[in-house]
């Protein structure tokens, strides 16, 4: 069975929102909004397909932006996907989703559409845009009517962690097909305070507090699952593995090889990000470019610069943890917090003897 290789592809920076936790608009180096032209898009497709052919993979695209639907060649690109039989998910905003648009998306092969809910109404609309909360919830039904899987994603931070249980109840009530959350990934230069009405990096999100969230959310998920809930809960954060381990639900296999990596963070393993400028990143949550998709072969980048993200023995805490091969938390959160990719995950509560 062939394996997919995932590309998170940002085709444009254009967006209807200016979210307070956005990587694009909070980056002081972004002095203009970029969008790929058609020739550049075809260069990206060609480079990605050649890379996948070389390594026996199938390309899968998470098409995003900005809001990808705002790109003038958005529909043309989806038609190209259909011709090439390329599978994809769209990660975008809810504002342009009508019955007609969703029907067209479905006809061109869109099986999943991911939207965001980042707290209850007052909090979410503060993060994103006035009215965004209700428009997002209402368009769950619009997507489902067209036969598209409606995915809701939340970004957890110190600002909204206490609202997550209500968010889950709400998206379940509105019939979301999939729900997941991940943690906000701070950048080293975004530590501003609320006096500037900007995003605070969530230093208050301690390991103990996040541990409690996962414990309580796990019970909430299981209650829904036992009652036949339609919504599927994606335990996206790799610290879920740590929770499962401490609860006895995950047991390290007796035949596990110490030299193997079996799961956990996929950075450096099976995905890359392509920005609207053509810059290649190991992960969108990392801030260092590893190359450019217009000028570099992805296969060359994969075998050289990407290897910097696969040095598992360099993890300052994880390398000494029995769950190294299955977890590793989120190195990008560690980088955003401490400036080191291999630094300890700040929300990991595992007690590890660092002297070993």
For the structure shown, list the relevant keywords:
31% helix, 356 residues, globular, S-adenosyl-L-methionine, Elp3/MiaA/NifB-like_rSAM
Description:
The relative contact order is 0.12. It contains ten helices and ten strands. The protein has a single domain (4-312), classed as TIM Barrel (Alpha-Beta Barrel). The radius of gyration is 20 Å and the shape is globular. Mean pLDDT is 90; it is low at 190-202. With 356 residues, it is α/β, with parallel strands linked by helices. Strand 2, helix 2 (74-84) and strand 3 form a beta-alpha-beta unit.
Q: What is the element layout, followed by pairings?
A:
Elements: E1 3-10, H1 38-54, E2 57-64, H2 74-84, E3 87-91, H3 99-107, E4 112-116, H4 121-127, H5 132-145, E5 149-156, H6 164-173, E6 178-183, H7 207-226, E7 232-234, H8 239-246, E8 271-274, E9 279-281, E10 289-292, H9 298-303, H10 331-338
Parallel strand pairs: 1-2, 1-8, 2-3, 3-4, 4-5, 5-6, 6-7
Antiparallel strand pairs: 8-9, 9-10
Total domains: 1
Q: How does the helix and strand content classify structurally?
A: alpha/beta
CATH class: Alpha Beta
CATH superfamily membership: Aldolase class I
Question: Which assembly state applies to the chains in this document?
Answer: single chain
Q: Biggest sheet, open or closed, and with what strands and sense? A: 10 strands, mixed
The CA-CA distance between the termini, in Å, is 40 Å
Number of helices: 10
Round the Cα radius of gyration to an integer and report it. Answer: 20 Å
**How would you state the average pLDDT, rounded?**
90
Query: Which CATH-level-2 architecture?
Result: Alpha-Beta Barrel
> What is the string of SSEs from the N terminus onward?
EHEHEHEHHEHEHEHEEEHH
Share in β-strands: 15-25%
Shape: globular
- What's the CATH topology name? TIM Barrel
Which regions are unreliable across 5 or more consecutive residues at pLDDT < 50?
190-202
Q: How many DSSP-defined strands?
A: 10
Helix content range: 25-40%
Cofactor: [4Fe-4S] cluster
GO molecular function, one term: metal ion binding
Keywords: 4Fe-4S, Iron, Iron-sulfur, Metal-binding, S-adenosyl-L-methionine
Pfam families: Radical_SAM, SPASM
